[in-house]
Specification:
The chain has 239 residues and is α/β, with parallel strands linked by helices. The chain has nine helices and five strands, in the order H-H-E-H-E-E-H-H-H-H-E-H-E-H.
Length: 239
């Protein structure tokens, strides 16, 4: 990778790593690799770290960033690390993943990760298909039908206010940070990265909510748990 990144290269770097994670997502999901939002954050950070390992850049997780750009730089030089500055009063954010130039107190990339899986174990379905008894298969069939009905109702109703608040949490603070760094002539790109298994229209919904905010880019991926369950139910019925 080039030792000096321009804005286009930085954007391409992040999107490549995000795309690579999405390519692996469902196969890993079937193995229960992702148990939390933190796991998604860790896997994405690992991909970014591999990309910048031979360059003067570093990758941070859960990094405090002061709303004021000058405070972020002074903390790094005075204390060797940025400090949380009264987060409860909106004076800083804690970014999920940050890519930073080691030679400059500047977060090149700030990313917020949101992971909203359908909390229902996949393994019993696979095992019922591959080696289950008739009783196992009948139990999984009934549970799958119930889950499909439940997910269809959630799709129809759309995200709740609480879910939308979760997706958009920290967005306001990130926008302030990006504006302040850009006013100083710095490169600062921000991404809201979402993986969802429930709402097919989640990207459109979030874009409508963020229509007036140009300081960050939405990267949204939907993997339909309901469609997957329907496919498995068809397989079970054929056995």
């Amino acid at each position: 990778m080039a030792t000096n990144l321009n804005e286009d290269n930085i954007r391409d770097l992040f999107k490549k790593c995000w795309h690579d994670l999405l390519q692996e997502y469902w196969s890993n999901r079937l193995l229960n690799v992702y148990c939390s939002e933190g796991d998604i954050r860790f896997h994405l950070a690992d991909k970014l770290l591999r990309e910048v390992s031979s360059s003067p850049y570093c990758v941070h997780c859960e990094l405090p960033i002061s709303i004021e750009a000058e405070d972020f730089g002074s903390d790094l030089y005075l204390y060797g690390r940025p400090k949380r500055k009264m987060k409860q009063k909106g004076q800083c954010i804690v970014a999920d993943i940050v890519v930073r130039n080691l030679d400059d107190a500047n977060p090149l990339i700030i990313s917020e990760i949101k992971y909203n899986p359908h909390e229902w174990n996949i393994r019993p379905i696979i095992e019922a298909i591959e080696k289950g008894t008739k009783e196992d298969r009948d139990f999984v069939k009934d549970a799958s039908r119930d889950a499909i009905i439940y997910l269809k109702a959630r799709e129809r109703n759309g995200p709740t206010k609480g879910e939308l608040a979760y997706f958009l949490k920290n967005v306001e603070g990130i926008v302030k940070v990006v504006r302040n760094f850009r006013e100083k002539g710095k490169i600062c790109l921000a991404y809201l990265c979402v993986i969802d298994e429930v709402y097919p229209d989640i990207e459109r919904t979030l874009k409508e909510k963020c229509a007036e905010l140009s300081e960050f880019e939405l990267l949204v991926a939907h993997f339909s748990k309901r469609d997957w369950l329907k496919e498995q139910l068809t397989r079970l019925n054929a056995l």
